[in-house]
Amino acid sequence: MSPTQAEISPKKLLQIQKNTYQHWVGDGFPVRTLFSYSTLGSLISPFLLFDYAGPKNFAPTEQRHGVGAHPHRGFETVTIVYSGEVQHRDSSGGGGKIGPGDVQWMTAASGLVHEEFHGRDFARHGGILEMVQLWVNLPAKHKMSAPHYQSIPSAAIPVITLPDNRGSVRVIAGEFEDTVGPAHTFTSLNVWDLRLANPNCFKVEVPDGHNTLLAVLRGTVSIAGSETLAAAEVALFDRTGGHILIDHASDAVALLLSGEPIDEPISGSGPFVMNTADEIHQAMEDYQNGKMGVMT
Question: Whole-prediction pTM value?
Answer without folding.
Answer: 0.95
